[in-house]
Amino acid sequence: MGFLTALSRRRTLLLCLLIQLLQVTSWSSAWTQGAPRLRLSFRDLQTSNSSTVIIGSINSSSYQALLLDEDRGWLLAGAKNHIFLFHSDNLNESPDKIYWPAAKDHVEHCKLAGKNAETECANFIRLLQHFNKTHVYACGTGAFHPVCTYIDLGLSSEEPTFLLIPHLVESGRGKCPYSPLEPFTAVLTDEKLYAGTSVDFMGTNAALFRTAIQGSRQHYIRTEANQDHWLNDPKFIGSYSIPDTHSPDDDKVYFFFKETAVESNQWDKRIYTRVARVCKNDVGGKRSLINRWTTFLKARLVCSVPGPEDRDTYFDELEDIFLLETRDEQNPLVFGVFSASSAVFKGSAVCVYSMASIRAAFKGPFAHKEGLDYRWVEYKGRIPYPRPGTCPSETYDPLHKSTQDFPDDVISFMRGHQLMWEVVHPLNRKPVFVRTGAPYLLKKVVVDRVEADDGQYNVLYLATDEGKVLKVISIPKESWQSEAIVLEELSVFQKPTPILNMKLSTKRQQLYVSSVSGVAQVSLHRCDLYGKACADCCLARDPYCAWDGSSCSRYFPTNKRRARRQDVKHGDPKSQCHDIGDGFDDVEEKVIYGVETNSTYLECVPRSQQTSIRWTVQHPRADHSHELKNDDRFVYMEHGILIHQLETRDAGIYSCMAEELSFSHTIARYSLRVIEHEHIGAPPSRGGAASRVVGGVRQGPTPFGPSHLHYKDYMQLSISGMSADEYCDQIWHRTKRRQKMHNLKWKQALENRKGRVRRHPRTE
Ligand SMILES: *[C@@H]1O[C@H](CO)[C@@H](O)[C@H](O)[C@H]1NC(C)=O
Ligand SMILES: *[C@@H]1O[C@H](CO)[C@@H](O)[C@H](O)[C@H]1NC(C)=O
Ligand SMILES: *[C@@H]1O[C@H](CO)[C@@H](O)[C@H](O)[C@H]1NC(C)=O
Ligand SMILES: *[C@@H]1O[C@H](CO)[C@@H](O)[C@H](O)[C@H]1NC(C)=O
């Protein structure tokens, strides 16, 4: 082993320590507190057999549209120029595929217009919706010339036919965006497609459309164009058909989107999130608002963390919406993922809304602007009858059978009053989950309702722009509070890539996740990975898992055959497990030799990321052990403790204690023996090994201060093509091997010199 390579390895090891320190100090406590119990890399997931990734075809990409049929067991994925049919029990089986490219002249036109040939000028499938028992409606961007048609899947679930109907291909204008990148939403209900999309090449003319897709006449209704108070540069996120009352006349479609807010400060325009709705039976006005919505209303959806003196932190940009069905079909729970990013602040939050609070905003006062130089205020004037936004109903009022029967004053009021004055607040007026300072933003959400021993829990699957999925559980507490726990953080794809879509199959207990590169299938639970002890299983608080007497395994609420140990609410192993007697603390004591003035590293890897670690030391002649403070000399690391500039008085018994909830136990114990200088051949140079090695990075009184990390050191890491974490991982293992060798060497040396060395840290 050459001296130079040894030196450079040391340097990189120190660099790794620096990077870790830097990460710990720069990511706020909000992030570190919400550390996942299990963090599984792509490789961990593959080796535990709980995830499969499928690339539909090497000629495709951008798997944006997913459609799951739970009953028939298939998953459709819409991608570039292709639609794939996966058998959802086993994605591994090679999928059937339909090749549906854009017309050649449209591709040429698209390229001539300056669009990217690879990433824009193709048919990117954006929409897949159930049409009837046998057919799925599909739309693609068609190289900036959107097209739609039907896919015949037949009735058989074993052998679905999978055919595109070419003679039914029709224009996708008002149903599908022109661009593969434009945010978009659509829902097909009663043979009508409700879509939020733009209808021009530039993507500037965006509207909420309803198109009757059956029948030759392409009839549609839309929001008024070029009217900022209707829609102002909207980005559409979600749309759902939700009944409002028992009367079908009252059925509405709700849209979720974000837009530049007209009512915010005139000079500092901000993005707000909106919920909007229209009546399904809206057919437009008669004299005015012909083919325009006459029932379109919108309200602001707020997601904020309460702060002192009303200075809330707002997460204004909606990223995704998920509706969790409840027993009452009129009242699903609305989950929204929001982000906030500015020069000083970047973060994500999840807020939950009740339909009752959304409806309350639409029943409240309207917002009003008198004229160009006026501010938006609450409208206090007379409201015409029938109240604007009400769906026409013959049974309720025979004079107003249809929106074409609405009186002129209602129509003219609707022209200027789309915005409600009251905003919609989330349940408990705050997010259920917040993540700030993390290196990623949350982009997608799906929610599973899980039956556990002590009640029902909402398990949130949150997908990031870096290919990760967080599995988060929200635990209700006293007085409307709740606690969010990150159970798992899964790296679903090999390379960090934004997650584009997610679907959850409760029947198969699988999550389907898509990105630019492919579709992954991930099992909802991997109970055995929480650990081999009852306490580990119980502390995990995963509602899918319970201790069955011999292992941590899937919990089935109906299975009463055996006593199952589970405590999601408190995660208290003392109440659940009998195996946590003395045995649990019975860790082997390892002897470690260190050299005076050199550094030494004691390893301690907690099984869970949520445990907090405490180190204690008992010196040879001391009565008690005392806690080690994280300071210049004793540095708490993610996987252990680093002791700088060893002194002879540092000898002693070091214990690493893991604390989680109220449960504490020892997970590593070392007897550290310090060898004095005079027992070593070569005297160490001034400053000791640690700071000398840091020489390349620059010396200083605290060589581990983040400020000493040089840009070029980061560069070296990125050149090697590995992430800092992977790199450091490798270095740890090498260092550990060397420490072992070195321990052995010193043990022998000491034994040879028995009688001279009498500094045994253990009081015998
Ligand atoms: C994963 O599956 C492979 C092949 O089916 C099997 O050999 C292996 O033991 C499995 N691993 C685990 C951890 O279940
Ligand atoms: C990919 O495209 C090339 C040329 O267009 C074609 O020859 C090849 O068969 C395609 N491969 C697959 C897997 O579809
Ligand atoms: C579903 O719709 C397609 C397209 O209009 C039609 O050809 C087919 O007969 C319909 N199937 C059923 C079962 O209604
Ligand atoms: C301790 O540091 C000296 C130089 O400072 C070095 O020569 C020696 O190898 C180090 N000892 C160990 C065991 O790392």
From TrEMBL:
InterPro entries listed in its UniProt record: Ig-like_dom, Ig-like_dom_sf, Ig-like_fold, PSI, Semap_dom, Semap_dom_sf, Semaphorin, WD40/YVTN_repeat-like_dom_sf
Recorded GO MF terms: chemorepellent activity; semaphorin receptor binding
Ranges annotated as biased composition (Basic residues): 755-764
Keyword NADP tagged: no
Signal peptide start-end: 1-30
Ranges where the Sema domain occurs: 37-524
Disordered: annotated span: 743-764
Entry-linked PROSITE patterns: IG_LIKE (PS50835), SEMA (PS51004)
GO BP annotation list: axon guidance; neural crest cell migration; positive regulation of cell migration; semaphorin-plexin signaling pathway; tube development
Principal location class: secreted
Keywords: Disulfide bond, Glycoprotein, Immunoglobulin domain, Secreted, Signal
Keyword rRNA-binding: no
Location in the cell: Secreted
Every Ig-like domain range: 573-668
GO annotations of cellular component type: extracellular region; plasma membrane
Similarity comment text for this entry: Belongs to the semaphorin family.
Name of the protein in question: Semaphorin-3D-like
